[in-house]
Amino acid sequence: MAYVLQQLLSRSAKAYPEKPAVWARGQSITYRELDERSNQLAHLLRKRGINKGDRVGLFFPKCVESIISMLGVLKAGGVYVPLDPQAPADRVGYIIGNCGIRVLITNSEKRSVLAPETLSTLECCILTEGAVDGDNLIEWSRLSEFPASNAPAVSLIETDLAYILYTSGSTGRPKGVMLSHQNALTFVEWCAEEFQVRSEDRLSNHAPLHFDLSVFDVYNTLEAGATVYLITEDLAVFPTSLANFIETQGITIWYSVPSALMLLLLHGRLTADKLKSLRIILFAGEVFPMKYLRQLAEVSQNTELYNLYGPTETNVCTYYKVERERLASMEKLPIGIACANTETFSVTPDGRLAGKGETGELYVRGPAVTYGYWADEEKTRKMVVPNHFQEHFEEKMYRTGDIVTVGDDGNYYFQGRRDSMIKSRGYRIELGEIESALLSHPGVREAAVLAVPDEIIGNRIRAVVALHIAGSLGVLDLQQYCASRVPKYMIPELIDLYEELPKTSTGKIDRVKLAAEPAGVR
């Protein structure tokens, strides 16, 4: 049993030194090479002053160097912070400042989009590609100057932080979820046992590396001595190419959001032959519409299907193995039962444990639960709360914000959210963050952002905006403005311009009335 994540690599590097560990963009790296290169990066980081607990940013498109970087930071005793390579510079700059990133691993193209004030806070950038033009820039080729045989001697324990994942925040700024080695390994070890991941497996990595789904792809690969195939952005957008990729690479375990699978079903020309190598399909992050799940079950008869559920703060906390014989009669897919070494329970608004059939908020306890949010004690206190069901010693539990019921079959069923967070394409999105972006435009007087249910991607985003001067801005102007402040997946697809937003009797924006009005009516 590992107690820190990098031990998964060390063990597999000894057992399978010449086996491919990672494949991306037509290149692969063996376990021995991955171990050696991450050792070298760790020594470089230590030389540049990275000590235990220091945060290191990763800001470049997904590639073999991504996995080297994650492991190199861990071996240096640091905490890696994967940054969305598609995110606007303002958002990336905020995260760099918020968690005090001093060293950034990036490339010349991505570095060039960062504001001078952001760059001035960094002690150095390590460039995975591109020419060096200054004293605080280090070429990737410099890794060869450092020892490859062993990692630096750093004392780490399982409760040390391993990585921070930033998710959408209700205050208008993203929040950093702190995850320890223990948090991640609790999940990884459960997966290894439940799904029997083996050294001969070929795992896909469809999720971006700043998205928590990727934790399974990367670390369960390393735990088993398997091979992970990174699906890059250029491949992910073409369903037919992606379906061919699954077949030609012989992928045996697939994990993604349901919308990715739906695109494959609708536009990937899927056949049973293309999926013949798959033994397990895992999906998580959003509701999977039953009609598409039935189609997937039909075209993948020899594949086990699992619905995994859990927020970034717990990774996966419940799961459900799809029973094909029940699919025809099921109206809704369960989110299942608690994973091993995790306890979940439903709590009513008055603080009681909910009974069968009674709605309540899902709470989670156990070693997979986050410590909280980086540099945000107030948010942490609100979401990571004392377990008042345990009177004899202090323990924390996480409030998911998801409303559930327990069915007659003993499974949890998701009913909705207690706040304004939605899911779209598997991403957790706080509508308030998009509203804040719109309201920061000097020409915008009022703004409300609404979720429009969509069976393919979960929700589409609609904004309703009132301007200070009618006609001064168009829909495209507002979308382009949002693009400079929020990630692409948070830009409203639909924007309606109103003279004035309707109000309730208390003077608040009447969101119920807005939601009832069809988009594009004004």
Radius of gyration: 23 Å
The CATH architecture name of one domain reads: 3-Layer(aba) Sandwich
Give the count of helical stretches. Answer: 17
Catalogue the unreliable spans: none
**What is the percentage of strand-forming residues?**
25-35%
Roughly how much helix do the residues carry, as a percent range? 25-40%
CATH class of one domain: Alpha Beta
Q: What class would the helix/strand composition place it in? A: alpha/beta
Mean pLDDT across every amino acid position: 94
Question: What is the compact description of this entry?
Answer:
This protein is an alpha/beta fold.
Structure, described:
With 522 residues, the chain is of the alpha/beta class. Among the domains are: 31-156, Rossmann fold (3-Layer(aba) Sandwich); 326-416, Luciferase, Domain 3 (Luciferase, domain 3), CATH 2.30.38; 429-516, 2-Layer Sandwich (GMP Synthetase, Chain A, domain 3), CATH 3.30.300.30. The strands form 7 sheets. Strands 4-3-5-6-7 form a 5-stranded parallel beta sheet. It has a 5-stranded mixed beta sheet with strand order 12-13-14-15-16, covered by helices on one side. Strands 17, 18, 20, 21 and 22 form a 5-stranded antiparallel beta sheet that branches. The model has no long low-confidence stretch (mean pLDDT 94). It is globular.
